[in-house]
Write a structure and sequence with these properties.
With 334 residues, the protein is of the alpha/beta class. Helices cover 45% and strands 14% of the residues. The chain has helices at residues 3-28, 37-44, 88-94, 119-132, 147-160, 188-194, 200-206, 209-217, 228-239, 247-250, 252-259, 261-270, 290-298, 315-318, 320-331, and strands spanning 47-51, 54-62, 70-74, 97-101, 139-144, 168-175, 275-279, 303-306. Helix 1 packs across helix 7 (200-206), helix 4 crosses helix 5 and helix 5 (147-160) packs across helix 12. The radius of gyration is 21 Å and the shape is globular. Keywords: Endoplasmic reticulum, Hydrolase, Membrane, Transmembrane, Transmembrane helix. It is a multi-pass membrane protein. Belongs to the AB hydrolase superfamily.
């Protein structure tokens, strides 16, 4: 075969491959897994409210009698309010009301597409939930993780600047969130998806349970990995309402963190609201010691709890006892 013919043949096969990728992606878009008993129980214990024509899932329980304290739990990416299940009951014994939601595009909440997901909108979702529950005048405690940390910082900014509809924040506890772009290391697939390239629609369809569990497992410690059932529940939450197809849109939050760093880091460094950081130091997304050194340097009024060295990016799931001890020490100190 002539050299020119060989080159044309390679180009032809490349073109065939490129044409087949979308077809393969469509083929691999298999139905989502059925809800497990644990997920069915979690959903049946919750409710929905409407935000801008979208249904938002939330769960609320009443606990400690004689207390008026309220805690609102803000979950991370790409999971859901189920992230808090291991610490829910102890929180329920400490607080009068424990509230969590699935952000728009996550868990059991609606996942509109196309849609421009943003941290600003998610903060408005939280404010709308607080209003829906009649807590507008109530001082609330925010407990957040990962993506939820950035939503919490937007809520903090609105509160400290007395914006219309803002929460009255009593305290803020963050955990393992990429609040500083300069120390944040998103996973490889996240980098690909966040840039909204022409590959994004293909990649979101190609992502499957094995890829998901491998990627998520990498941000858990080697001795604190989720069980197979927990991995499957997390994946089912993503796939529910075709949530995998909006992941590229949601991941714009990484770019938003860069663009609005001064707003959100500024809110954190200037607030007089009590702030605490619970940190799993094995976190590859916000690595030790760079992240915590920068945090302590910039957020000098905050207290910090560094958990055991084998705890990684999901401390509330990996070490619920250590996480709760750290949180209760903070919340009971004022």
């Amino acid at each position: 075969m002539l050299k020119g013919d060989s080159r044309k043949m390679r180009e032809w096969w490349l073109l065939v491959g490129l044409l087949c990728i979308p077809l393969l992606a469509v083929y691999l878009h298999i139905p989502p897994p059925q809800l497990s008993p644990a997920l069915l129980t979690w959903r049946s214990a919750g409710a929905f409210f409407t935000f801008r024509s979208n249904n938002i899932f939330y769960r609320e329980t009443y606990g400690a009698v004689g207390s008026s304290d309220v805690v609102i739990l803000l979950h991370g990416f790409p999971t859901s309010s189920l992230d808090w299940y291991k610490i829910w009951e102890p929180l329920n014994r400490r607080f009068n009301r424990v509230i969590a939601l699935d952000f728009l595009g996550f868990g059991f909440s609606d996942k509109p597409r196309p849609h421009r997901y943003s941290i600003f909108e998610q903060a408005s979702v939280v404010e709308a939930l607080v209003s829906h529950l009649g807590l507008t005048e109530q001082r609330v405690n925010l407990l957040s993780h990962d993506y939820g940390d950035t939503v919490a910082l937007e809520l903090l900014y609105r509160s400290d600047h007395n914006r219309t509809g803002h929460l009255t924040i009593n305290s803020l506890c963050l955990s393992n969130g990429g609040i500083f772009p300069e120390t944040h290391h998103p996973r490889f697939l996240q980098k690909l998806l966040k840039d909204s390239s022409f590959l994004s629609p293909v990649l979101t369809r190609l992502t499957n349970y094995m890829m998901f569990s491998k990627g998520l497992g990498d941000v858990f410690g080697p001795y604190t990995q989720p069980t197979d059932a927990e991995f499957l529940d997390m994946w089912t939450g993503v796939r529910f309402n075709d949530g995998n197809l909006v992941m590229d849109s949601i991941l714009q939050f990484i770019n938003q963190r860069d663009e609005h760093r001064d707003r959100w880091v500024g809110a954190l460094t200037s607030t007089f609201i009590p702030v605490h950081m619970i940190y799993g130091p094995l976190d590859p997304v916000n690595p030790h010691p760079q992240f915590i050194f920068l945090y302590q340097k910039l957020v000098q009024r905050s207290t910090v709890s560094v958990l055991d060295e084998h705890i990684s990016h999901y401390p509330q799931l990996e070490d619920p006892t250590g996480f709760l001890n750290a949180y209760f020490s903070f919340i009971n100190a004022f």
